[in-house]
Amino acid sequence: MALDVLKIRSDFPALSKTVHGRPLVFLDSAASAQKPRQVLDAMRFGYENEYANVHRGMYELSETATSNYERARSKVRKFINAASDKEIIFTKGATDALNTVAYTWGAANLKAGDEIILSVAEHHSNIVPWQILRERSGFKIRVAPVRDDGSFDFEAFKSLLNEKTKLVGVAHMSNVLGTVFPIKDIVRAAHGAGAVVVVDGCQGATHLPADMQEIGCDFYAFSGHKLYGPTGIGVLYGRSELLENMPPFEGGGDMIKSVSFEQSVWAEPPARFEAGTPPIMQAIGLGHAIDYVQAIGMENIAAHERNLCVKLAEGIASVPGTRQIGTAEGKTGLVSFVMDCAHPQDIAMILDQQGVAVRTGHHCAQPLHERFGISVSARASLGVYNTEEDIEALVAALYKVRKFFG
Questions:
Q1: Adjacency order of strands within the sheet including 334-339
Q2: Catalytic residue among 202, 217, 341, 364
Q3: Which domains occur in the chain, in start order?
Q4: Which tens digits make up the pLDDT trace of 11-28?
Q5: How far is CA 18 from the centre of its chain?
Q6: What is the pLDDT of residues 45-69, one digit of tens each?
Q7: Within a 10 A sphere around the Cβ of 327, how many other Cβ atoms?
Q8: Cystine design at 321: which of 6, 50, 74, 340 (Cβ 3.0–4.6 Å)?
Q9: Mean pLDDT over each residue of the chain, to the nearest integer
Q10: Distance of CA 257 to the CA centre of its chain
Q11: Catalytic annotation on 217?
Q12: Cα separation of 37 and 145, whole Å?
């Protein structure tokens, strides 16, 4: 189904802005997406009319807030087709979710002599926590490569699996390459070796349908702010059998059954992993963001963005002296690139003068940039609200970069 993108754009107040006298062309949704009015209005209404701390409050406001908060958990569960609401943990972001896996499951299960496998394309959030834990536990990190086109080298990955492999960490979709990794095959192979699989779904859950029971992974993390929701909220999906046997990450209120100075007894998941006052309105806002994208349809969003990504890649390739990082078949959502005439930071500054917003840097994926022989890149990334006219504006601005730097 073709999307009514003009109608969708009207839902996003930020897209009516002008920048340096030009209409804003927002191509940085991979870092953080704009928010629709439906989410903003729902959160404002909640703060003004239905706000109180959740759980245990025996009065109407608290009961309403608790109901809205737990309803948001159910929306997330349905969105990713988890088996139970108990498998949905609210965190303050995807980084927090991945750290939770490292310092709960990882700290309890990884030891000297073990190995874990991470793809070279991982975001730092799925690298650094494991490095910190490695210093304590002494396990080995092995790196699964990508091919020159940015596709996942599945055969090389399988050759790394052995009886020492305890965990595999992989992105659903690369935030630099746009590559959609074959996570169902990765999960199947990893489970065959007896390893647990943690998936960074920050880009995947935004651009693609993500079905936990179909994928079969053990943990899956994503953030609200990339899914047209608020900042300060993330989701960790974990299989019930694992969560029930994991220690808590943080201690405090609401994550216990009982406390004495002799011993504390942990609550059942998900409360065990949600210490203290949770991000109440952020979770509710995420629930409304999920309502928004589901009303459009994730399959429809995926098709729209795949088509746009092809045009985006073609448009950038038409500019002399550009080199794209990642050209794998089926990629979506974004294109990272460099130009032979200008540093990415200079590219972004000139684009900004034309009203075009892109991101530059290593995109929290330095090992991947080193794999492709560069230190930084420019990245244009798409959302449900982007159009072919946005791509045309980007390409015209890139020609101005070419002209300016010669």
A1: 322-325, 334-339, 377-381, 359-361
A2: 364
A3: 5-27+297-405 (3.90.1150.10), 50-294 (3.40.640.10)
A4: 999 999 999 999 999 999
A5: 28
A6: 999 999 999 998 999 999 999 999 9
A7: 16
A8: 340
A9: 97
A10: 32
A11: no
A12: 41
